[in-house]
C-alpha cells in the first residue's frame, strides 16, 4: 500500500472510530441530557421546603407530583384483615388503621385520623409527613420529638416535597435528609453520601418507608436496625434493650409493633439483588410532550406496567400481572391463617393469665412466644405491596409467626388444663376466618 493511501486509510479509520464513538456516546449520554433542564431561578434557603418554589424550574416533575392527589383510595385495613383489631387492642391502631394513599394526602390524613393514633406520641408522629421536618428538627433539636402534636403540626404546610429527595442547586443529584434515617445508617456505619445513584433511587424512599419505634422517655423516632433489617434481627434488638411498646390488655403479652417495612423487605429480594431500585418501578420514565421525565406520581406500578416492568421483563403483561396477583393472593391467604392463629393465642392466654393456681412460668413463656409470633406476622401484614416486594421472605415470616403462635396457644392450653380451668371456645373464630376466606 502506498504511503498516501495508507494515510487516507488511517484517516478514514479515525473518522469511522470517531463516528462510532460519537454514536455510542450519543446513545449513552443522550438519554441523560434529555432529562437535563436549564435552571431558571436558584431556589433560596427560605423557600426550599416549599414545592411551589421549585415549580417554575421543573414544571413537568411538579405536575406529575401533583397527580398523586388522584390516588384517593385508602380503605381501612380492618375491611380485609378484621383480626388486626384484636391484635392491636390497647394501642391507637385498634381505633383506626388505613392503607396508604397518594403522597399529596399525608398531612390531611394525619389531621383527620383518630386522635388516639398520635396522642400518646405527640409531635414525633409528624416526622414522615412533611419536607419541613428536617428543618424543624434542626431548630428544636431532639426536644422536637416530645413536643405537643399541634405545636409542630400547625406549622406544616407542605407534604413530602422536592426538598426531601433533591439537592436544591441540582435536582439530578438526590439528597437524603430525614434525621432518623441518617442516624440509623450512621449507627450501622454506612455512609449514605457514598451511595451510588442507583442505590439512592431506593434510599430516598427508605427515609420514610421503614419501621421504627419511639424511644421511651425521649419519644425519639428510631429504627431497630442495630442487629440487622429482618424481623428476626429486629426482635433480637428489641429483646436486647428490653423494649416493649405495649402490654396486650387481654393476653398480658409484652408486644412490639412493626410499621410499613417496604425497604427492609425489599432488601435481599430477587429484585434488589438484580440491582432494581424503588424508583425503577414506582417512578418510571414517562414522556411528557417531547420531554422524558421520572414520574413523580408514585402509586401502584400495576397502573404503569409498560414503563415499570416491561422495560426489563420479556413476558407478556398478562402473565406478569398474573404472577403478581398470585403472589399477593397467597400472601393474603397466609395472613388470614396467621390472623386466626394469633386470635386463638390471645383468647387462650386471656383465660390462662388470671386463672387461680396457674403455672405462671408457662404463661410467661407463652406470652413471650406471642410477642415474637405476632411480630413476624405483623411485619408482613403492615408492609405495603401484599408480599410482592419479597414473596419468599413474606411467606417464611408468616409461617414462622403461625408456628410461634400455635406453640404459644398449646402452652397456654396446657397451663389452663393443669390448673383445672376450661379452655375457651374458639369455634366462632374458626368460622369467622373461614367466612373471610370465602369472601375473596
Ligand atoms: C417524607 C416521607 C416519605 C418519603 C421520602 C417517601 N414516602 Fe411514600 N408515603 C409516605 C407517606 C406518609 C405515605 C402515606 C400517605 C397517606 O396515606 O396519606 C406514603 C405513601 C406512598 C405510596 C402509596 C400511594 C398510593 O396511592 O396508595 C407509595 C406507592 C409510596 N409512598 C412510594 C414511595 C416511593 C417509591 C418513595 C421514594 C421514591 C417514597 N414513597 C418516598 C411518606 C414518604
Ligand atoms: C420521594 C423522593 C422525591 C421527591 C419528593 C421528589 N423527587 Fe424528583 N426525583 C426523585 C428520583 C428518585 C428521581 C430520579 C433521579 C435519578 O435517577 O437520578 C427524580 C428526578 C427528578 C428530576 C430529574 C429529571 C427527571 O425527571 O428524572 C427533577 C428535575 C426532579 N426530580 C424534580 C422534582 C421536583 C420539582 C419535585 C417536587 C415537586 C420532586 N422532584 C420531588 C425523587 C423525588
Ligand atoms: C419490581 C418492582 C417494584 C419495586 C422495585 C418496588 N416496588 Fe413497591 N410495589 C410494587 C408492586 C407491584 C406493588 C403492588 C401494587 C398493587 O398491589 O397495586 C407495590 C406496592 C407498594 C406500595 C403500596 C402501594 C399501594 O397502592 O398501596 C408501597 C408504599 C411501595 N410499593 C413502596 C415501595 C418502596 C419504598 C420500594 C423500595 C424500597 C418499592 N416499593 C420497590 C412494585 C415494586
Ligand atoms: C430493572 C429491571 C426490572 C424491573 C423494572 C422489574 N423487574 Fe421483575 N425481575 C427482574 C429480574 C432480574 C428478576 C429475576 C430474574 C427472573 O426471575 O426473571 C425479576 C423477577 C421477577 C419476578 C419473579 C421473582 C419473584 O419475586 O417471584 C416477578 C413476578 C417480577 N419480576 C415481576 C415484576 C413486575 C410486576 C415489575 C413491575 C412492577 C417488575 N418485575 C419490574 C428485573 C426487573
TrEMBL record:
The chain crosses the membrane at residues 7-29. SUPFAM superfamilies: Multiheme cytochromes (SSF48695). Its EC number is 1.7.2.2. Keywords: Calcium, Heme, Iron, Membrane, Metal-binding, Oxidoreductase, Signal, Transmembrane, Transmembrane helix. Its main location: other. InterPro entries: Cyt_c552, Multihaem_cyt_sf. It catalyses: 6 Fe(III)-[cytochrome c] + NH4(+) + 2 H2O = 6 Fe(II)-[cytochrome c] + nitrite + 8 H(+). The keyword Metal-binding applies. It is found in: Cell envelope. Belongs to the cytochrome c-552 family. This is nitrite reductase (cytochrome; ammonia-forming). It comes from Peptococcus simiae.
